[in-house]
Specification:
The complex is a heterotrimer.
Chain A: E1 4-13, E2 22-32, H1 37-50, E3 73-74, E4 77-78, E5 100-104, E6 113-115, E7 118-119, H2 122-131, H3 151-161, H4 168-172, H5 179-191, H6 193-196, H7 199-212, H8 223-227, H9 235-250
Parallel strand pairs in A: 1-5
Antiparallel strand pairs in A: 1-2, 3-4, 3-5, 6-7
Chain B: H1 13-23, H2 29-32, E1 36-40, H3 44-56, E2 59-63, E3 81-82, H4 94-104, H5 111-131, E4 156-157, H6 163-180, E5 184-187, E6 190-198, E7 201-209, E8 215-219, E9 222-225, H7 246-253, E10 258-259, E11 264-270, E12 293-297, E13 314-315, H8 317-321, H9 331-343, E14 355-358, H10 360-373, H11 381-407, E15 416-425, E16 428-429, E17 442-444, H12 462-482, H13 496-515, H14 521-536, H15 542-562, H16 574-598, H17 622-625, E18 627-635, E19 638-645
Parallel strand pairs in B: 1-2, 1-9, 2-5, 9-17
Antiparallel strand pairs in B: 3-4, 6-7, 7-8, 10-16, 10-18, 11-15, 12-13, 12-14, 14-15, 18-19
Helix pairs in contact in B: 1-5, 3-6, 3-12, 4-5, 5-12, 10-11, 14-15, 14-16, 15-16
Chain C: H1 2-9, H2 11-36, H3 46-57, H4 59-88, H5 110-134, H6 137-140, H7 143-150, H8 154-182, H9 190-216
Helix pairs in contact in C: 1-2, 2-4, 2-8, 2-9, 5-7, 5-8, 8-9
């Protein structure tokens, strides 16, 4: 509600993918504690524009924590110090006056930097394209209520499907592993009868694509689950492991 | 008038769509393979259309400005999606959904389109479930429904408070499947900057690769604009930061008429503005009005804290004014009532531009209910509070958390402060029954078109319309056009028309970069937003609109001489992207005021202060304004009005009353 | 068998291999620790030496020894491979990492802990396996006597205790992690697995560590 902050920002600046980047330090003052972290960057950017400098490029869109576009590795953690929120929902009241805040892009070889804090996450789209779907053409569907699904399964599938594809799991993981992301989709569809038909093929194809994209393996540290703004559970990774091994060992 | 042919099929309302489907021209599979379709936008309408068309065999290219098609703002829809399934056995039917939508739209939507929407609504649910969309279910394993504003049946399907997300991810997965199969080529971080027309037909687009700044030419036998609404003309809205009108506006300038631009939906329950720094507004689901009570202090400029104001000094103004519907009046009415109280000096919070949404009574009510359930005969106040809060948490926990995250206040302890905010635009590109604009081969789907919601959209209908257009309408209606295009081979983009279009786009970008003025883009956007909100928002007047048009024209001039865009034209440059969008908003804003000024009546989201009943309700003029206002772009600040008369053959027009 | 090598070479397969070999090594630890614990009977190593004698000559155990080495080697090679591969997935490191906010340090340090264990193991094998299998030292004196002799050196005792601490942390993460990698994560059973894992990770290394300490302080004769 009240209070203004003076902050030192150490922000990663990189002109494009082919040149090296470095940290730049900026001072911002009079930051309202009611601002979101992105609005604080807006304030900095408008000042940079007025001073004739290039503003900090960062991804963002819905600013209500659901589109998954915002990223930013803030003070050593994806989406900053609070659990269960994206950067756009992180508010400045979570910081202290006089604090130095380090802001970096997601770091992973599968997420190359495009500019400043903007990274390329199209690897996620390719993982979905490899098998994160039910092969049903429009118009083929039977009546929605013809197949009862236990509420628990539907709820579990929803919890996995809540993934926003922001990449915080990859950013948090010491191995830059995409297993939480990939397993969330594999789980969602494996839990539902509609998805079971292609479950084996899906698990094999999505894992293969995930590996091809250059994500690391899982060390089960749990960092992804802890940093996931939507609380996607590690149980999904275990389920993916089951799905994958039963697929590879039983498929013809 | 002759130019506007809605191409509505003949026959009975209920048979039109069936007749159309049986008689529309078809394209055989081998011809489909050589027909190319461009889809701009990857939200519910775009993703569903692209996937469905690719499944049929067309060659599809999809463009989105975000880094992935999954980011489109459809993802933020919370509440649900309507469908006339009648699973609850409560008397729902296609006709009722049709009727509710027309009435909710304050009798300003086209009957045939809305009826078709209601007809296909059930298939949408079937399709989504088959894709693995995890809708909420009952313990018996069947789909659950909830009720929503403006209806008397339970027909809303939902997935917690993230229905839009789940539906979009379903459509996105279908889209990605086609991408993986090579039937769709996806262009992310690409912004469409112009439509290319050849001999009067849409034949392609010019797009800018946001990462490299390169301008690209793409050919298509048809171009589908699925680019959403233009609520960001108000600067502050519940839209995503990137939501824009550019694609639709470029189409408008290439000959597509813009219909009912002034119809804007202002959603009553949003978190209020906290300061100048604010970049966007956040919606709190309409479902909160089911249990919350809305009030302001009875005393003007009351500075006491909410909890210090005794019960008899609170004005539950919605319950007072609309005893029949109380806190559940439709969106436009709830919004206007909040504005009226705040303007009269009864607003709360630091800005005085907010009203309270109070859960104290609901907490006690639920707490007592729980006590009864558990056979507790003399529960203490603390026990009642604790149990009541637990129930509220289960129902609305994620919304309460979001409120706390944004405001820093705990809504379990103090009433929430809410205020209306721009949420949806019913207006959009004029389309005929086939969803084709006035430019042949150019289509508009979803929120980008104007067709189904009239002057006010009902809750949970936006998702329905986006998916209806994409999954079940365009795959049929596009045949009517493409069947005649099978002899048109894919064209080279190395033609004078593409040259000219690309040059115009390049010139405009260079002009913007070379202004080198003093003010950032946001400065102009905020000023435009303020004009629009003050004069073309919840209440409009002829006097204010006339002044606004002048102000906006002056602002356009100032923008084009004083905007400052840093960075380079051939690199990722968010300011340059924003500048192009704001330049278009500046022109659209003017047209919205022109349209609002033309419409001498109040209807739905359009409220003209001169046209109200004695007790401050909207006063429609069906005699003179039962038409769609479709505007043709002639030149800068010059728009020509075409009218599509709305004929109601199946519904009797009546005044809405919620008292 | 190409499907098998393919699937075992996937990121999931490599983890499966770690898990299976890890669980196998855990089972070995249990046998090893139980047998060694016989020294605490304080019978001058009679029971222990009998056990050692049995282990040294039983053909099944001799075969299992080969399997054990194979498993250990697989665990090491696969582990090192994962360590290096995983490191390469983030070519530009973060300037600031707040790992403690989201995970336990030992879960992030399995490669390091494993390497420490490997170094310890080389020393340990030299001390006892080399002695009992590849030299004719047993003709001179018993394994028990050799332990008594080796653990008179305080440096050796400290190294062994540190080795056991590394083992404890390695197990604390590895035990439950193995189940997760195999796909066994269930709300009903996982808490039990985690508890057993934690007890195992404390009791077994503590028992091992007690041995050199006991010898050094002459608590065992």
């Amino acid at each position: 509600m009240e209070g203004n902050l003076n902050l030192t920002l150490k922000i990663w600046r990189q002109k494009n993918a082919s040149v090296a980047g470095k940290f730049e330090t900026y001072q911002v003052s009079g930051i309202s504690t009611d601002m979101s972290f992105l609005e604080m960057i807006d304030v900095l950017n408008n000042r940079l524009i007025e001073e004739g400098d290039d503003p900090v490029a960062f991804d963002h869109d819905c600013r209500e924590g659901i589109c998954g576009m915002c990223s930013m590795y803030i003070n050593g953690r994806p989406h900053g110090p609070n659990r269960g929120v994206t950067t756009c929902q992180l508010h400045m009241r979570s910081f202290q006056d006089g604090e130095t805040i380090t802001v970096e892009p997601w770091r992973a070889s599968a997420f190359p930097v495009i500019k400043d804090l903007v990274v390329n996450r199209s690897a996620f789209d390719r993982i979905i394209a490899a098998g994160g779907f039910v092969s049903i053409n429009t118009g083929n569907a039977q009546d929605a209520n013809s197949l009862p699904i236990p509420k628990e399964d539907a709820d579990d599938a929803f919890a996995a499907a809540a993934c926003i594809g922001c990449g915080a799991c990859v950013a948090a993981c010491k191995n830059a592993s995409a297993m939480l992301f990939t397993s969330a989709k594999i789980s969602q569809l494996a839990l539902l009868p509609q998805g079971k038909v292609e479950a084996s093929k899906r698990a094999e194809a999505m894992v293969a694509q995930m590996d091809e994209e250059g994500f690391g393996a899982c060390s089960n540290t749990g960092a992804c689950e802890a940093e996931c703004p939507k609380g996607i559970s590690l149980e999904n990774i275990a389920r993916m492991n089951r799905e994958y091994f039963s697929a590879t060992f039983s498929s013809k | 008038m002759t130019k506007l042919d809605a191409k509505i099929p003949g026959g009975n309302l209920a048979d039109k769509w069936t007749t159309f489907k049986s008689s529309v021209s078809l394209v055989n599979p081998s011809n489909k393979r050589s027909l190319e379709i461009i889809v701009v936008g990857s939200g519910l309408a775009g993703a569903s259309a692209a996937a469905s068309l690719a499944e049929l065999g067309y060659k599809v290219k999809v463009f989105c400005f975000q880094d992935s098609p999954r980011r489109a703002h459809s993802i933020a829809a919370q509440g649900g999606i309507n469908a006339a399934k009648n699973y609850q056995n409560d008397g729902d039917s296609v006709y009722r959904l049709f009727y509710d939508t027309i009435k909710g739209g304050d009798y300003r939507a086209r009957e045939a389109n809305v009826h078709r929407l209601a007809e296909v609504s059930g298939s949408i649910i079937d399709q989504c479930v088959a894709q693995g969309v995890p809708f909420a279910r009952e313990y018996g394993g069947l789909l659950s429904n909830r009720s929503f504003g403006g209806t008397q049946v339970q027909r809303t399907f939902y997935a917690a408070g993230q229905t839009g997300q789940q539906l979009l991810l379903g459509a996105y997965s279908s889209l990605q499947r086609q991408v993986g199969m090579g039937n769709v080529k996806m262009y992310t971080r690409h912004e469409m900057l112009d439509v290319v027309t050849i001999d009067g037909k849409a034949r392609g687009i010019i797009a800018r690769d946001s990462v490299t700044g390169a301008l690209e030419r793409h050919f298509g036998h048809a171009v589908l604009l699925c680019t959403g609404g233009y609520g960001n003309v108000f600067y502050l809205s519940t839209n995503a930061m990137g939501s824009n009108v550019t694609a639709a506006w470029k189409a408008h300038k290439k000959g597509a008429f813009f219909a009912n631009p002034c119809y804007t939906q202002i959603h009553p329950t949003c978190i209020p503005v906290s300061g100048d720094h604010q970049s966007k507004l956040t919606l709190m689901s309409e479902s909160l009005r089911n249990d919350g009570r809305i009030w302001v202090p009875k005393k003007e400029n009351d500075t006491r804290k909410a909890n210090e104001i005794p019960e008899d000094e609170r004005d539950y103004y919605l319950e007072r004014r609309y005893p029949a519907f109380g806190n559940l009046v439709p969106r436009d009415i709830a919004s206007r009532a909040a504005k009226e109280r705040c303007d009269a000096g009864f607003g709360v919070g630091a800005s005085k531009m907010a009203v309270y949404l109070d859960y104290a009574a609901a907490i006690i009510r639920y707490g007592k209910g729980e006590a009864n359930k558990h056979n507790m005969h003399n529960p203490s106040d603390e026990e009642i509070q604790a149990m009541g809060k637990a129930v509220v948490k289960e129902k609305y926990g994620n919304l309460f958390d979001m409120y706390k995250q944004i405001t820093g206040e705990d809504p379990y302890q103090v009433p929430m402060r809410i205020y209306p905010a721009v949420h949806y635009t019913m207006g959009g590109l004029w389309v005929d029954y086939n969803l084709m604009t006035t430019v042949p081969g150019l289509y508009a789907l979803g929120e980008a078109n104007f067709s189904d919601h009239g002057a006010n959209r009902l809750g949970a209908s936006a998702l329905m319309q986006g998916l209806a257009d994409g999954y079940f309408v365009i795959p049929y209606t596009i045949g009517a056009y493409l069947a005649a295009e099978i002899r048109t081979p894919a064209m080279s983009t190395d033609t004078p028309d593409f040259d000219a279009a690309e040059k115009a786009v390049r010139d405009r970008l260079e002009t913007l970069m070379n202004i080198k003025g003093n003010k950032p883009v946001d400065y102009f956007h905020k000023r435009l937003g303020k004009i629009m909100w003050d004069e073309c928002g919840m209440a409009r007047s002829a006097e204010g609109l006339k002044a606004s048009i002048k102000e906006i024209q002056a602002l356009q001039k100032e923008f084009w001489s004083d905007v400052k865009i840093p960075g380079e034209i051939d690199n990722l440059n968010p300011e340059l992207e924003k500048a192009g969008r704001v330049a278009d908003f500046l022109e659209l804003g003017e047209l919205m005021c022109v349209d609002a000024l033309d419409r001498d009546e109040s209807c739905g989201g359009h409220f003209r202060t001169e046209f109200q009943t004695e007790d401050g309700e909207a006063l429609r003029d069906d005699q003179n304004y039962a038409y769609v206002a479709a505007w043709e772009y002639e030149k800068q600040s010059k728009f020509k009005l075409h009218k599509e008369e709305l004929k109601y053959e199946n519904i009797k027009i009546a005044q809405r009353s919620y008292k | 068998m190409s499907w098998l090598t393919k699937s075992l070479n996937s990121s999931l397969g490599k983890k499966l291999l770690m898990a299976i070999t890890g669980l196998f090594l855990i089972s070995f630890l249990l046998v090893h620790c139980s047998l060694n614990a016989l020294i605490f009977l304080n019978d001058g190593g009679v029971a222990f030496n009998e056990g050692a004698e049995f282990m040294a000559h039983n053909p099944v155990i001799r075969t299992m020894e080969i399997v054990l080495f194979a498993g250990l080697l697989l665990h090491i090679v696969d582990g090192l491979r994962l360590w290096f591969e995983n490191k390469s997935k983030r070519p530009v490191a973060y300037a600031k990492v707040d790992g403690a906010a989201n995970s336990k340090w030992y879960s992030r340090s399995m490669g390091l802990l494993g390497t420490l264990l490997l170094l310890f193991l080389i020393l340990h094998l030299k001390h006892f396996w080399y002695f009992s299998r590849l030299t004719d030292g047993l003709e001179d004196h018993t394994l028990f006597a050799e332990m008594q002799a080796v653990f008179m050196n305080p440096v050796v005792v400290v190294v062994y205790v540190l080795g056991c601490i590394s083992l404890g942390y390695h197990l604390l993460h590895g035990f439950q992690s193995a189940f997760q990698s195999i796909g066994w994560n269930h709300p009903k059973y996982s808490p039990t697995i985690k508890t057993i894992g934690a007890i195992f990770s404390i009791v077994i290394p503590a028992a091992f560590a007690a041995m050199p300490i006991a010898f050094y302080f002459h608590l065992i004769h």
